Structure prediction request, 186 residues.
Amino acid sequence: MNEAWVGAPERKFARLGDAVQVTDGTVIAGYASLFGTRDQGGDVVAAGAYGRSLARLAERGGAVKMLWQHDPREPIGVWDEVREDARGLFVKGRILTDVARGREAAALIAAGAIDGLSIGYRTVRATKDAGGVRRLDEVELWEVSLVTFPMLAEARVASKAADTAEALLRGLAGALREAGRGLRTV
Prediction:
């Protein structure tokens, strides 16, 4: 027997997705939620669960917030892209390093100390099966946070800001060497 659920604000944790990119310690992208995957709390998000919420946000010019550890007093950046695809809820945004906690978050991501994403939402419509698995059919998405301990462990960070920063520094060093050679010949 299925029960209908309508509830208070909740949070679901997921590691940054397989297609994660971290660029210059500020730009991150990944999956905050994967459809059809049971999390550690026994919930499964159904495909399309975020659609209405994202449409309502777009209609009123709102945005999903980027927070640190779900703390509404600690916004650390902006999500430039939040969308559903066949796999789940994809997010791409910028950590603002002009904000103290943003600088810390970027450093922790680069070091591999933080790699989790977590959604903050309100359940609009859900069912629970006889085995206790709750299927989230519609949620109102409020925020996606960077977190220490995600609920959904299937996704991983694919690259780190430190790797990108190292590559940029090597490129800059090469450019400076070339510029130095040009100065000597003049």
Remarks:
- The longest strand covers residues 71-84.
- The chain is about 25% helix and 40% strand.
- The radius of gyration is 20 Å.
